[in-house]
Amino acid sequence: MFLAMSARAETLDWAAMNATNLRIGNTDTEPFGTAPTVLDVNVSGSFTGTFDAGGTHNLEIQPTTTLNGYTGLAVSRMDASNDTEATYQTITVTFTEPVYNLNVIVGDIDGGPNWSLSGSAFNDIIEFRAVNTADATVTPTSGTPVDNTKVSWNNTTGRASALGFNVTDNTGDVSVIFAGPVKSFTVRHYAAANSNVSNPTGQMAFLKDFTFTRSPQLTVNKQALGGTGSFPLAVSNILDTATTPWSTTSVSQTLAVSPAGATTTGTQRLLFATSTAAVVTETIPVNWAFSGSTMSCSDSNSAVSGNPATFTAAVSLNTVTVAATNVRAGAIITCTVVNTAAITTLSLAKTRAFATPGGDVNGNGLADVGDQIVYTYTVQNTGNVSLTNVVIGDIHEGTALPITPSRVVTNETLLLTGPSGPSSDASINGSWDLLSAGSQIRFRYTHTVTLGEFNAG
After folding, report:
1. pLDDT at residue 432 is higher than 80
2. Please, are residues 214 and 37 in contact by the beta-carbon 8 Å criterion?
3. How do strand 372-381 and strand 346-354 relate by DSSP bridges?
4. How would you label 367-402 residue by residue, b for 16+ Cβ within 10 Å and e otherwise?
5. How far apart (Å, rounded) are the C-alpha atoms in residues 42 and 419?
6. C-alpha 388: how far from chain center
7. What confidence category does residue 5 fall into, taking pLDDT thresholds of 50, 70 and 90?
């Protein structure tokens, strides 16, 4: 079984999209990356308020427009009848999965008393909002103007405001970050009040390229050694976009492997949350076992995610756990998990000693008639699957070892619990009920030396 998760930094390039007038309800859909890492982003626009009939009012994607040294922009232009913040235009970008580290840059935030050309005089206000995976509206994590003497930033309101200067370069830009996870965001351009000109015209701001990091993804593959078979498993922390709000779910699949030693690739799925463990729970078929107590993993996108290039996932019983610390935005993780056909082997060590106290009746250190000898049998499951009903048989001068509580002393003691699961026994009856791989038990039998045994030497 392999575990693979993926998420990578993406950039929305307006120059790669078609020219679109978003004000009339059109929507652009922009795919990112190549299969299997594809993300759709829907871009739309809306307006509220009253605009002058003779002015320029549009909200559109202009892929070839060049402004302030940038090519390809989403541009907001408006000539409002009243500059009281009652009129505004909104660009909305909606994702098909949670995204992280969203960085939005709005340029040309300017205007005010120092800017008056052909009747234009205004102060831009740009407001930023996002909707998180709980469907709650949130303000940005941070905002940074290029020049805070020309554009101010209010982290409480999530607003960037012009400070009364006309700008012709990037000093009117602001960079805004949403840490995420978010499923959509909006940039709202207000027709704001001006101190010296009533009803200014030609108010404009533009949205530059923005970047984000995708959600992690998980693929479960299966490798089987020593045989062929079908392996049912379930994976946790999977994104469910069919719910409102989005939620986490567990998804099941069965992977068939043939021929022996081959690897079968499963379905790649989006994970719901970072910093949350992804657990693969397998219904291990009879006569199969996981191989090893850890699984080797790699992150081919570690430069983006911050993961180590290689790390391990923990194996316990029938689960493989990719730790929460490794489930990161930007990660493309592959973990190799191998199932091996059953190996059923036992090791046995036998020792003897005089019973204490008084086992050596005459104290001569030799086994004489009437002396009591304690035989200790140490049994370990050296295979890779659990064994049941483990029984010790032995012959003493042609007589089988009696398996009865009256002749067996302190028998069936668990010495070691193996890494593959619990070992248990319901009663002292000479048979150990369940011995997991790696576990060790001890049987003890106390025997009184007979005259026949003594004479036989």
Report:
1. yes
2. yes
3. antiparallel
4. beeebbbbbbbbbbbebbbbbeebebebeeeeeebe
5. 49
6. 37
7. very low
Model confidence over 42-53: pLDDT tens digits? Answer: 999 988 887 776
Q: State the pLDDT at residue 3.
A: 44
CB contact at 8 A, 448 and 372:
yes
CA–centroid distance for 277 within its chain: 6
Scanning 214-309, the segments in alpha helix (DSSP H) are: 302-305
Q: Are 152 and 161 in contact (CB under 8 A)?
A: yes
Q: Report residue 174 as tokens.
A: 């602001």
Is the CB of residue 352 less than 8 Å from the CB of residue 375? yes
Half-sphere exposure of 197 (CA within 13 A, CB side): 23
- Burial string for 315-333 (b: 16+ CB within 10 Å, else e) reads beeebbbbeeebbbbbbbb
The candidate with the shortest Cα–Cα distance to 332, out of 98, 2, 5, 99, is: 5
CB neighbourhood size of 75 (10 A): 22
Distance CA 59, CA 125 (A): 16
pLDDT digits (tens, 9 = 90+) for 55-64: 678 889 999 9
Confidence check: pLDDT of 37 > 70: no
Distance CA 396, CA 175 (A): 87
Q: For residue 327, give the nearest of 246, 271, 281 by alpha carbon.
A: 271
Higher pLDDT pick, 290 / 380: 380
Which H helix or E strand runs over 223?
A: strand 217-225
Show Cβ contacts of residue 340 under 8 Å, excluding neighbours closer than 6 positions: 224, 225, 226, 288, 289, 290, 291, 384
Strand partners, 445: 375, 408
The residues near 225 (Cβ < 8 Å, ≥ 6 apart) are 260, 261, 291, 338, 339, 340, 341
**From edge to edge, which strands make up the β-sheet containing 372-381?**
346-354, 372-381, 440-448, 413-416
Q: Which of 35-58 are b and which e, b meaning 16 or more Cβ less than 10 Å from the residue's Cβ? A: eebebebebbbebebebeeeeebb
Q: What is the pLDDT of residue 79?
A: 79
Quote the CA–CA distance of 52 and 75 in Å, as a whole number: 18
Give every CB contact of residue 9 below 8 A, 6+ residues apart in sequence.
101, 211, 212, 213, 214, 304, 330
Distance between CA 292 and CA 308 in Å, rounded? Answer: 21
Which tokens is 262 given?
């081959």
Biggest alpha carbon–alpha carbon distance for the chain? 127
